[in-house]
Design brief:
By secondary structure, this protein is an alpha/beta fold. Helix content is 43%, strand content 17%. Strands 2-1-3-4-5 form a 5-stranded parallel beta sheet, with helices on both faces.
Length: 207
């Protein structure tokens, strides 16, 4: 019986229309697509998600929560991109993740992208996201991408100016797809060999 196609979902933690966070996420998803995966981008601005545990004021809120949960349940891998606000991920993204848990993320591959206005990059936000995904038993791939001075990293048309960062974003998508495929096929030895041989995160390179 043929294997079903790989499904990689990207979640944008910014509510800004056509913002830099979405542009960075699309590059990472493109890497996954080039690796043979089906991709889907989720913009949280299109979802009317109430705060966790607050009452649903109308049916639309409940429908949007159910829709998001269903999309993530069907994914083999997740790529999350967030702006860094006050040393952490966006509130919109944290609330969306709070609505989900083991059922949506356990055993899945997760890739992380962070954007920050300052020169230090989004490492605090990425660290917090890494902790969140570990708590729900996801596999966070060793590589991650932090984009510092993000307001100056893209041109007026939303294109990333640094080709090295562009390659790193696409490589992140490739990495998520590769690990997700090995995990889905049950090739544990190949999975561990690839995981242990991953190049160390280059840190602030490319800022």
């Amino acid at each position: 019986m043929p294997q079903s196609r790989l499904n990689i979902v990207g979640i944008c933690g910014s509510l800004e229309a056509k913002g830099n966070t979405m542009q960075a996420l699309r590059l990472a998803l493109e890497g996954a697509r080039l690796s043979g995966a089906d991709i889907q981008a989720v913009e949280l601005r299109d979802y009317d998600l109430p705060l966790l545990n607050s009452p649903f004021r109308h049916a639309k809120g409940a429908q949007h929560v159910a829709k998001l949960k269903n999309i993530c349940k069907k994914a083999d891998g997740i790529i999350v991109a967030t702006p860094e606000y006050h040393g952490s991920c966006s509130g919109a993204l944290k609330n969306a993740l709070d609505w989900m848990g083991f059922e949506e993320f356990e055993g899945k591959m997760a890739g992380l992208v962070g954007l920050a206005g300052g020169e230090m990059g989004a490492f605090n936000a990425l660290s917090h996201l890494r902790t969140i995904f570990r708590q729900v038993h996801a596999w966070v791939v060793p590589g991650q991408v932090s984009i510092a001075r993000s307001h100056h990293a893209f041109d007026r048309n939303g294109r990333l100016l640094d080709p090295k960062l562009g390659r790193r974003l696409k490589n992140l998508g490739v990495e998520v797809a590769k690990f997700a495929l090995l995990h889905k096929q049950g090739k544990s030895n190949d999975f561990l060999r690839l995981w242990e041989g991953c190049v160390a995160n280059p840190g602030g390179e490319g800022r």
